Amino acid sequence: KNLQKLGEEALKWSAESNGNGEFEVRWQNQQVVVNLKKKNCTCRRWDLTGIPCEHAIQAIRKAKLKVYDFVAGCYFKDSCIRIYENSISPTAGREYWPLSQLGEVGVPPLRDSIKRGRPKKARRKEAGEKDSGKKRQKDPEREVAKPVKKKYKCTDCGEVGHNKTFHQNREAKELAKKKRAEAKQKEKEDIQRRKQLERAERNRLAALKKLQAKAAKQASSQVMADGSSQRPASQVSQQPSQDSHRSNL
C-alpha cells in the first residue's frame, strides 16, 4: 500500500537519465538526483527507510525496471522467516549460574561531600590568586520594576495600614466602628457647613451686584437732572418765537 501511494505521487515528477545510473528528477521548481546503483536520493528517504521514494520510483520507471527489486530485503517475508528460524536455547535459574572470577560488581558508595543547592559555575581560585574585581553591572533595560505594595484599609475604623482582623476582641471592634461613625458624621457636617458658606457667599455677591446696579441707576438719573437745569436761557427765549412763527404759517 505504501508503494502504491508513493507510485501515485511519483506521476507528477519527470526523470532524465545521464546513462550512468543517475537520474535528474524535476517537478515545478524542485529538483533532486537519484542514483539507482547506490540506491540513494537527495531527499534521503530512500537511504533511511530502505523503500524507494517517489523520486526513485519515477527514475526506476524511466529505466523500465521493477520497483520491488529496489526495496530493502528486510521488508520481505523470506527475511522474517530466516530471522526466526533459529531456536532460542533455554537457560537455568540464577542459582545455577557459574561464579565469576572477577568478583562481584557492587554499587559505588555515595559521596558525603555533596552540598545542597545549585553548584557554582565559577572556577575555583588558586592559593594567592586575587579576584579580578570586575562586578557584573546591572542592565537597566532588564531590571523588573518591583510590585507596589497594596495599602490595606480597615472596614471597621477606616484607617489605612490594617484590616478588620486587627481588632481582635469585641470591645475594640465596637470602638473602631464608633470611631468610623464619628468620622463619617464629622465629614458630613463639614460638607454641610461648606455648602452653607458657599450659599451665603453667593447671596452676598448677588446683593452686592443689586446695590451696584441701583447706585449706577441713581447716578445716571442725577446726571440727567443736572443737565436739564443748566440749559442756557437763550434756548428757552427762542422757544416761544418759534411757536409763534409756526402759528402764523
Automatic annotation (TrEMBL):
<dbReference type="InterPro" id="IPR007527">
    <property type="entry name" value="Znf_SWIM"/>
</dbReference>
<feature type="compositionally biased region" description="Polar residues">
    <location>
        <begin position="227"/>
        <end position="242"/>
    </location>
</feature>
<feature type="compositionally biased region" description="Basic and acidic residues">
    <location>
        <begin position="182"/>
        <end position="204"/>
    </location>
</feature>
<dbReference type="InterPro" id="IPR006564">
    <property type="entry name" value="Znf_PMZ"/>
</dbReference>
<feature type="region of interest" description="Disordered">
    <location>
        <begin position="108"/>
        <end position="249"/>
    </location>
</feature>
<feature type="compositionally biased region" description="Low complexity">
    <location>
        <begin position="205"/>
        <end position="222"/>
    </location>
</feature>
<protein>
    <recommendedName>
        <fullName>SWIM-type domain-containing protein</fullName>
    </recommendedName>
</protein>
<feature type="compositionally biased region" description="Basic and acidic residues">
    <location>
        <begin position="153"/>
        <end position="175"/>
    </location>
</feature>
<dbReference type="Pfam" id="PF04434">
    <property type="entry name" value="SWIM"/>
</dbReference>
<feature type="compositionally biased region" description="Basic and acidic residues">
    <location>
        <begin position="125"/>
        <end position="146"/>
    </location>
</feature>
<keyword id="KW-0863">Zinc-finger</keyword>
<feature type="domain" description="SWIM-type">
    <location>
        <begin position="30"/>
        <end position="64"/>
    </location>
</feature>
<keyword id="KW-0862">Zinc</keyword>
<keyword id="KW-0479">Metal-binding</keyword>
<dbReference type="GO" id="GO:0008270">
    <property type="term" value="F:zinc ion binding"/>
</dbReference>
